[in-house]
Amino acid sequence: MKKISVIIPVYNRAQYVDSCLKSVISQTIGLESLEIIIINDGSTDNSLDILKEYDRIHESIVLIDQVNQGVSAARNAGLKHATGEYIAFLDADDYLPKDAYEVLYNKSNNLDIVLGKFQYIDEDGTVKHTAFENVFKNTKADEIVIDPRIDEDFWHVFRYGSLWFRIFKTNFIQDKKLVFVDILSSGGDLYFTTLATLLAKNVKLINHVVYCYIQAPDSIMRGGMKSKTLFYNIFKVFECTYAGIQTYGLCKYKHIFDYMVLDNHLPFRNRIVEFSTRSCIDLYDLISHEFNYIASIIKNILENTSKETFARLSSERYSVYKNLHLNNENIWSYYQKPGKQVSIIVPFYNVEKYIRACLESLEQQTLKEIEVILIDDGSPDDSIEIANEFIEKNTNFFLFRKENGGQGSARNLGLKHAKGEYILFLDSDDMLPPRACEVMYNKAVETGSCIVVGESVWKYEDRTEDVAYLKKWFNSDEYENLRENHNFPLSCVIVTAKLFRRSLIYDNNLEFLHIIGEDIPFALQSWYYAKKIAITNNIVYWRTERQDENNKSTMQTFNAETVKDRLIGMKFMEVFCADKKLTDIRTRMFSFFHGIIHRYFKNITDDTEKEKAYEFIKIYISSFSDKADLQIISRYIGFDAKQVEALPYSEYVMTFVEA
Questions:
Q1: Residue 644: what pLDDT?
Q2: What percent of the chain has pLDDT over 70?
Q3: 338-543: CATH architecture
Q4: So where are the chain's domains?
Q5: What is the pTM of this model?
Q6: Considering the domain 4-223 in this protein, what is its CATH number?
């Protein structure tokens, strides 16, 4: 009896299959120990010619040639012919380390399943990631025998649904009558490995790389990432797997698969986001019965998942599922409804003193076709309780939660879930006047603008005050296209009091940097990509100035990290301007450096923090070599910028900071 039967389905893999088979032929376990079953699944390239040549030379090869039926049917054909003690699966565009099967077999000890580490590798040979590396990080053991059904620390074995880094005891597979579901043209791995792992009495994980997964751009799982088949098929996989769990009497372990689906498989490749935002309809050209099928699978999973399993999810994951609308009789009709006119994204963190007034101002908007997307950025105070009050009484308010990561990451999460035609950003300690959304939306429609800019003012109990540095823009002609004004992007650097067309953001993949001062790079990029920017002289934004010394806003906080973040933002903009040949804007942009020095650096009161900030400044200045750039910087720091790298902090203080 051969030690391992290796099953290799092949469909149009001529570019890779030679390297794949060479890695099998050269295994240190010895060719005499292997049964190599190759299934040509109706290839239309010259794969079959290559396979026939290998079949002619090597007696260990069994070549099956069949009409195209899909990878699941091909693997089932291989299972029917397998006679080895163990079974392994190999994809024709991947390859094996030389000792893979020797190590796996020698460690098998008659166990049902043995698996090792595997590597994601780019076509140029670069190792991108090694799976299961962390399992052995804090142990000297080179193998671990586990029961992942019981040991929650090893549930991640279920997270990777692929076959190829495992070997399965042949008698175990045959006794359990495990086969692939022929109708699954992709994702059949997940069905097979989930059931096999739940049925296995014992599983061994070894500290050895046994598989090299090539991320080929034209593979099913790589090149077809955005294919309708791949998206739609995963829901068939879920349905088949749940049916298999019931058929095999494994319902007591169903919660494990529930958790994997909700925490990993649905969020993977933004599947659940594409569903919740309806983008999957256009992206994959879904028709009504297809979309309704997907919705029914998701609904069934959520309705049959326990509270304990939901409690395991992160607040961010849970909030996505909580905000799905799956109880409508006609899901298709509900999701086909036009999106709201405006999505208002409101991140919040420690704003219990301000958020009620903020959200009340949104309830009072005269434009009714709005949705409010609240992002809890891990707020430790009572902000979340106040937000929930508004969620309960407003069907157009939605709450998503995440771990604290700053306003940039919170806004990005909001963008993932925004469905409106236009998007508006609101800080949770500020407010909108009642007609703000109506005025800006009407202006956008009237002018066909990508961005509409309105006036913001400071709002106090008894008065309002102009925002001085912005006021000049609201004395100008409302019909001027500000996209043509190269002074605008560096003069109006905030993203609040602006209405952005959703397509402007999504079509250009705009995101916020995870820094303090994330507005500025976003404002510059959105200005660049916009075709038309209109202004309205109406007041559309009420700013609040925090008076709480113990809870300052980021604009009131001065430390080394603030300086570092501002410099990161500057570097991003400098590179962006250079790439887009915005020479005039890039030159004027250096004036921001002057602002960083005089506002953020000089307002740091702690000497240690100030010295850290100075080191960040030195690194930033040292990144420039162009003489023209250095001359501009020199004007702002008061002496030759070339001296900075060698200049100690004490001398810097004497020559500039105190000047």
A1: 64
A2: 91
A3: Alpha-Beta Complex (3.90)
A4: 4-223, 230-335, 338-543, 558-657
A5: 0.73
A6: 3.90.550.10
